[in-house]
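Illustration: DUF853 family protein.
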Amino acid sequence: MTTPQEKAAAARRAAEAAAKAAAEAEAAADAAEREAAEEAARASGQGAAKPGKSAGGDAAAAGEKIAAGYVFEGPALELGGVMVDGAVIPGALTRIPLRTLNRHGLVAGATGTGKTKTLQGIAEQLSSAGVPVVMADMKGDLSGLAQPGERSDKLIARSAELGDTGWAPAGFPVEFVSLGTGGIGVPVRATITSFGPVLLSKVLGLNATQESTLGLIFHWADEHGLALLDLKDLRAVITHLTSPDGKADLAGIGGVSAATAGVILRALVNLEAEGGDTFFGEPELDSADLLRVRGGQGVITLVELGAQAARPALFSTFLMWVLAELFQTLPEIGDPDKPKLVFIFDEAHLLFAGASKAFLDQVVQTVKLIRSKGVGVIFSTQMPTDIPNPVLSQLGARIQHALRAFTPEDQQALTKTVKTYPKTETYDLAQALTSLGIGEAIVTVLSETGAPTPVAWTRLRAPRSFMGAIGDDAVHARAERSPLFAKYGATVDRESAYEILAAKVQASQAEPEAPPQPKRSGPDDKTAAERIMDNPAVKNFLRSAATAAGREISRSIFGTRKR
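Result:
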């Protein structure tokens, strides 16, 4: 007899097979449509358009027409030169207006196509324009931003071809920070209370039911004024709620099972074993330290994983927490001439993989609203389809490096990517996206009027800083010289939920309960309860609890602490 589990497994296998067949059918249909179009073109004597081939045959005219869409009145980031027929058109350049960078962007492409160097060049120009940048340095190969690059004849010739006749090596102001104390940069932290239940659930890999339970646990701690500063504080609260003494409190929360609370507790223990305890705590990162300008140049803050290598999801989730903090603290400024700050999310797929609906909804809301605070967000990933559609629709600038289309799923992703670009008569985008060379990309951005610019096959400019890592020793030495090291270098462990609950338990065990007495013999005799209440540890706990109503924690976006 077939069990329900076997039926469910068979249904899943059937669904997966159906999805794969649908993807293969769609890819085959798209290929057939392209083949039919090419046959029709050959029959009419026109010939099919080739990647980078001008339909009108006049490459220079086509390139100049494209470049006309990238002429702006205000300051802009220089991307590179327009290519048609496989050659750069002299004087035809692509750019991104600084005033539209708070409309966000996407840099995508397969591994080894030049995404990192593109991000490096963007960060350099933003810094030169006085705009601070926060970048996720997943692989540690962006540290070269702090050091001037190396001049070569090939590099000078490429730069001149792309209109960058003044290319010269240059370094930029960089702060190296690490998540927690186990890295080579300045350690940065967040408190559990500030991080909130939605973001923490993403890090712990909780399902929707467990995420909801964690939210109720946070609510109970908030109501009782129990500060959750580090992992041991949250463990202490969950341990209390699942203990005999906390049974009434757990029942009072409503809808929380002891089994689910136990699952969350085990997830916390695993996170702690993987080094998460070095990230959650104090002193907490002040988002104002990310908005600094030094000598007219925006400071580039490079964030590396540190001891959190086993939890890469913590990386992108931390950056989203910083965005939520900025959303709360920065004033509304509308559309400034240049952004106050630009966030660059490398390996953005980690942010969305396995995310709950509540988390995704909050990401969409943050991306939509943070632009009015003057903050721009650039997502970087291999496939545009890694980004959920509600987020993708908010990204105004698109820099697409080469895609690979080796499988039916890849073909389907390629077809979807082509459909997101404005129509072009100059390029066959389906072929172009798989034919781009290293350091080349298909580009379209928002103009100063908010309209998309023409699609441009672009050879991108080279960075002026060092294109490689400067080494762990050099990074660590720079971090120790940073003024931020004095502020964040040492961990602070002040009284919080763990200490308060431990004192309560200690006090309750300090005196055994006296047997009931029918009558007190005199005014100076005290009951066991009165003696417990006189205990200094209990008095300390009650003082904390008595002010709970006055300092109950309220929450904002992502369930983060409201400032």
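Reading the tokens back as a structure: The chain has a mean pLDDT of 84.
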